[in-house]
Each structure stands twice: as C-alpha cells, then as structure tokens.
Amino acid sequence: MVQGPTPRPTPSWRQWQPIDQLPVIADVIDGMVASAEEQYPLLEEARPRPHMRDDDTVSRVVEVYTARRDDLWLCEEQLWEWRARRLTEAQRWEVERLTGQLDRLRALIDKIFLLMDDLKGETGETGETLMAKSHVQVARELLMRQAREQDR
Hints:
The protein has 152 residues and is mainly alpha-helical.
C-alpha cells in the first residue's frame, strides 16, 4: 500500500518570520540549491572510481542531504505563510521564485540520493572495501564485470 507524505510536525514553538526576512530566507534557499548543484557533479565523478569514495564520505553525504530534505518543510511553510499575506508584487514574485527553487532543490536531492544508491549498489565497494581485497580477487572481479558488459 502506498503511503502519503509524512505528516509535518506542528510545533508549538513555530514562529513565522516577518516579510522583511525574505532576503535572508532567499539567501538560505539559494545557497542550498547552489551547494547541491556544486556537489552533484563532484559526486558523479566518483561513479567510475571506487577508490575515490569511502564509507564515511558516502554516509556523510546521505546524512547531510537527508537532514536537508527533512528540513525543507520549514521553508515551504514559511513561504506558504507569506503567500497568504498581502505582499507587494516584488515580494510575491520572490516568494514564487523561492517556491520554484525548493522544487529544484528537492529534485537535486533526489538525484543525489539516486547517485548514492548507485555508488553503493554498482559494486558495493568503496576505497576501503577495495583495499581489503587481494589483487587477484580485484582482477578477477574486474574481468568478470567486463565480460558481463560485453555480453550486453
């Protein structure tokens, strides 16, 4: 059975930011998007190079982007709160732009998670697991993988 979205917490401490904080929230959201856009190609470079990735790095990337994804609702709720207010045209445009940025960020985070799954799933190896194998075992696995790819 497919479950719906996870219910969002409704903390009693929630305090909406005044609209004059829009530039601050914009910097935060734009910074998260820029960071994810910068990180994705760097993570992509590790795909063909298991020696470039280690268990700690993969775990840290997953941890950071899980926390980031789990906190997106805070920005979304703030934008919804502002959207319900009387805004200038420029403020309304910026709130809509930021809503698009959050959609973009969510998509980037999903791509990063898929990449991390691929990196863990392709060979299941990181530099650490590769170094733990004998040279003969690594060579045998490489030849078997190349043979499978040629059969495709």
